[in-house]
Specification:
The complex is a heterodimer of chains A (400) and B (123).
Chain A lengths: L2 H23 L2 H6 L11 E8 L3 E2 L11 H7 L1 E21 L5 E19 L7 E13 L4 E14 L7 E15 L2 E10 L6 E10 L6 E6 L2 E8 L3 E17 L12 E18 L4 E19 L12 E6 L3 E11 L10 H12 L28 H4 L10
Chain B lengths: L7 H17 L3 H26 L8 H32 L2 H27 L1
Helix pairs in contact in B: 1-4, 2-3
The chains are: A mainly beta (400), B mainly alpha (123).
């Protein structure tokens, strides 16, 4: 090829590349990518709730096989309250368009929680036990039948009222959710949890029958059994059973444990509560709930830190007390900040949201509710429309 | 049929979703594929229109008027590009007959809304 031809080809090749670049610069992807639509399905969310039970006298009779009458006499009575707060926020959201037309997505959330457990005994000083976690959770919604969920929440536990050791533990859940259709889903997995008042490594099994935006029955072992139903546009009622509990470091300043000269013991509590919960979802951003019911099975335990030093799984207690039944009251709120991607009729994402609320941040077995999932009711009211309500839906030419 | 929440636009969105669902008679499988794509399309369309509405429609000089016209042109371009992009994506989720019915359902829904507005202005 002679020099002139080479230059001609080079010049036209460069011109062609330049033109392609210009066309690409003004192409659809560029002009549509710049649109600032919401990035995430989950919005930064804050939640808090307060739970309390009335004072109960401890049974002072000596029972065969127990040697802890002295401790029982020392404690006299027992009352429990707790304040829980927490947050989660999206770090990464990634959508995947599959060849079959389905859309999957991955969500990485940062999580954090605190719990102030406030056990009160008639015969000891007051203890305010702090449990605080920082964690991470990843959820992959395939957009088809399956959803993978993984959560890990390392936490610390200490007694704020008196000098105690600080313990570092972790809770976590890993599971697979198979959603056969919007009316039926199964969950299988494993969970490391302290909600039964001890350190447990348990299988997770769940089944839900009924649509999440309508009436459904959900049985999630070991988290909850819930029958949930919409009550109009804003309200959702639930009848439920669930365990509540935890394992906390507590100062031994009242010498509850007398061996080993330990300055710290572990306080464990477990309650199986049954109640009714009313969620009010005022809008996409604010939800509140009130709940009340009975604590059916209720235990209180103390564990020696030293005796369980080499114990890797379930801890052995030195004191165990069954508490008589009583009422409980639980009130809370959830605040969701900012705009999120729409999830209307996206049942895979409804399931994803429900998974996220069922397995709470910080392993306290509280529940933020499903305020993101719109209730399906039969209300067809369309009155009081204003132009500004529909301006995103109607173009100027539609008016002619 | 309304979602939870006091925001009227959210309610209308929910009515539209119900309207389209009913008109298209979607199967579970179709629904599972269609709604994520359609929601994303609507999110982007809404964001583009909201961005355009930030432009002031009161002009004190020619530059402001030109900026407004440019923004309007950009909006039209974006709407068309989104339509093209999501038309292809939606075609992967629904049979072509239902895609065509979707356009008709959207138009019918607009007519419903306009009827509501008209009824209100006649009151």
């Amino acid at each position: 090829m002679i020099e002139g031809q080479k230059q001609y080809v080079l010049k036209h090749t460069l011109l062609f590349i330049f033109l392609i670049a210009v066309v690409n610069a003004f192409s659809q992807t560029d002009s549509t990518k710049k649109i600032k639509a919401p990035k995430h399905y989950f919005t930064p969310t804050l939640f808090s709730d307060y739970y309390t039970t009335p004072q109960k006298n401890l049974d002072q009779r000596f029972r065969k096989g127990t040697e802890d009458l002295a401790i029982r006499k020392r404690l006299e009575n027992y009352q429990y309250s707790q304040l829980v707060g927490g947050f989660y926020f999206p770090i990464i959201t990634k959508d995947y368009d599959h060849a079959d037309g389905s859309t999957g997505n991955f969500h990485l959330l940062g999580t954090g929680s605190y719990m102030m457990a406030m056990p009160r005994f008639g015969g000891t000083s007051n203890h305010n036990l702090l449990k605080a976690s920082i964690g991470i959770r990843g959820i992959y919604n395939s957009g088809r039948k399956g959803i993978w969920f993984a959560d890990i929440s390392p936490f610390m536990s200490t007694d704020l009222s008196a000098h105690s050791n600080t313990a570092y533990r972790w809770g976590g859940t890993f599971l697979y959710d198979y959603m056969a259709n919007p009316y039926l889903s199964f969950r299988f997995g494993v969970t490391r949890t302290f909600v039964l008042g001890n350190r447990n490594f348990l299988p997770y099994f769940g089944i839900r029958i009924g649509r999440l935006d309508k009436i459904y029955l959900s049985m999630q072992f070991p988290r909850n059994v819930t029958f949930s139903f919409p009550m109009g546009r804003f309200l959702r009622g639930s009848i439920y059973f669930k365990p509540m509990g935890g394992l906390f470091n507590m100062a031994n300043n009242d010498s509850i444990y007398t061996k080993n000269k330990d300055n710290t013991i572990l306080y464990g509590r477990y309650e199986l509560i049954s109640g009714f919960r009313l969620d009010a979802n005022f809008n996409k951003h604010v939800s509140v709930f009130v709940s009340t019911g009975f604590t059916g099975v209720k235990y209180l335990s103390f564990f020696s830190e030293t005796e369980n030093k080499n114990n890797r799984l379930v801890l052995n207690d030195f004191y165990h007390e069954k508490i008589s039944r009583g009422l409980f009251v639980d009130v809370g709120f959830t605040i969701r900040i900012g705009r999120a991607k729409s999830i209307y009729n996206n049942y895979n994402l409804y399931e994803t949201f429900n998974l996220n609320s069922t397995i709470d941040v910080g392993d306290n077995n509280t529940n933020t509710g499903d305020g993101n999932i719109p209730n399906q009711t039969k209300n067809k009211e369309k009155s009081n429309l204003k132009i500004k309500d529909v301006q995103d839906l109607i173009e100027a030419q539609d008016l002619y | 049929m309304f979602p939870q929440g006091g925001n009227k636009r959210e309610k209308i969105e929910a009515i539209r979703v119900a309207f389209i669902t009913q008109k298209l008679n979607l199967t579970v499988d179709e629904s599972q594929k269609f709604w994520p794509v359609y929601n994303e399309y609507q999110d982007k369309l809404r964001a583009a229109r909201q961005e355009f509405r930030k432009q002031s429609a009161v002009f004190t000089n020619d530059k402001e008027a030109q900026d407004y016209l440019d923004a309007e042109l950009l909006l039209k371009q974006r709407e068309f590009n989104l339509y093209k992009e999501y038309y292809e994506k939606i075609k992967k989720t629904l049979p072509v007959k239902k895609v065509a019915e979707l356009r008709q359902a959207e138009e019918d829904f607009k007519k419903e809304l306009l009827k509501q507005l008209q009824g209100k202005s006649n009151d």
